[in-house]
Amino acid sequence: MSKVMEMRTPSGAPGARTVWYVLGAVVALALFVQAWIVVQARPQDLITGAHGMADIMSRAMPPAFDQFVPNLWPVLETIDLAIFGTVFGVLLAFPLSILAASNLTPALPLYYAARAVIGVTRAVPDLVWALLFVTAVGLGPFPGALALAVHSVGMLGRLFAEVIEDMDMGPVEALTLTGAGRVQVLAHAVVPGVLPSLLGIGLFRFDENLRSSLVLGFVGAGGIGFQLLTAMNLFQYQTVSFLLIATFVLVTCAERISAYLRKLFL
Amino acid sequence: MSLGQAAAFGSAGSDMPGAVKPAVRTTGVRLAVRDLTMCYANGHTALRNLNLSVNGGEMVVVLGSNGSGKSTFMKCVVGLNRPTEGSVKVGGRDLAALSGEALREARLPLALISQNANLVKRRSVLANVCCGALGRHRTLMSAFGRLPRDEIEPAMSYLDEVGLLHLARQRAGTLSGGQAQRVAVARALAQRPDVLLADEPVASLDPEAADEVMRLLRRLATEDGLAVVCVLHQPELAARYADRLVGLRSGLLEFDRPASDVSSQQIAGLYLAEAS
After folding, report:
1. Chain B residues whose beta carbon lies within 8 Å of the beta carbon of residue A196
2. Does domain A65-265 have CATH number 1.10.3210.10?
3. CATH assignment of B3-109+195-275?
4. What is the DSSP letter of A54?
């Protein structure tokens, strides 16, 4: 075996690396095949049933643009769900992220407690949170807004904590040595240092919450999602297509605006 | 620093060309370090029975190779490291025996300038300087990020003192290394300290900027009566600006005497001994 080959096979055995590559490829293929079986994939059904989809789509045309005015309120509700969820998410996630950042946490038990809260709120999907809150406060936008806020706490808390852990600790140490208190150091060194990143993440979360609020409407949280479900149940496909267009415009506008603001802050 | 560098500057005394030291007018002991010993958890002894007193109006430069204990000394003085034995007295209070809120209060007359200016880059130069006064203004509004109003005018005067008043409204992130270090000095002044510690303040600066910062520290000792303790790696700068030179080797005090009494061989010995 050439010297080059010897260097390329760390174990020294001929072609050991190739064996590992083949083994890796077999394992990856096996994973994909078991996924195919478990989801009961039947692509032929998609082809034979395509005419059903085409039928619905033809009945959805032309979109019912006369539904614009009656749906203005649900559109506002959808936007407000995202605003409420994001604002409360940011307000709760920031102090939690301070406790969950290893470089700033005042005590180890608080660090673990904060990480646990972030883990739980993040692991439970917003849809499940919405169902839980519906049982507590009834139907309407409020349980949806609460669900978005709680789920955002987990998502934002983790990202905020990572930003804080990556920050330059020099100014924090410098201000601590001037005799500034812990809260003063937070306000004058930590916040100015991480604020642009946090705002960027917050705006990105608003984007996500807007999309989630559509889905939450399906479980009674109001907004466009609820209108969409109602129209589908009543076979009003032209209204459905209008609502889908409205959703597309809403999400695209929110994406553009938040991208512009992120650029402005960063 | 190389041995060649150490030997190159010849006599370390104030009689060397370019020396910028006026007559020393000291105003009593501001920093008193007694029998300072620092053993780390791994058993390494970084400092052994170190004694050092610094008067107001005096500038002391600490020299020594890497690992000689200079940084440990600085950390022990500001209370970042708790010494194994000994005392560090500032304003009559022993920092080594304090912790928590008591240490924070006792540390107020002690300001530290690090190798990196450690400014908050997204804030203005003026805001950074005002932050030096936060220790005296622990108000609710300052906890919400508001700067102490009555500190703005003094902060402007400190900026004027370091020659950067014209940059007061500029973002700190836009400053050059030398300018940032001078802002760090102004922030330290906003603390109204009695003792100014500088840990390799010119390490990342070009010779001109380094000279500027050293000249500033010298002036603060002479005109404002501060006790200045500066760790340096440049013996030529030390000789030009310091009243006293302190040599550390393997955590032991090798010499502590007026700069004019320290020979280049003694300084070279600090580095030679560490290398061998």
Report:
1. 122
2. no
3. 3.40.50.300
4. H
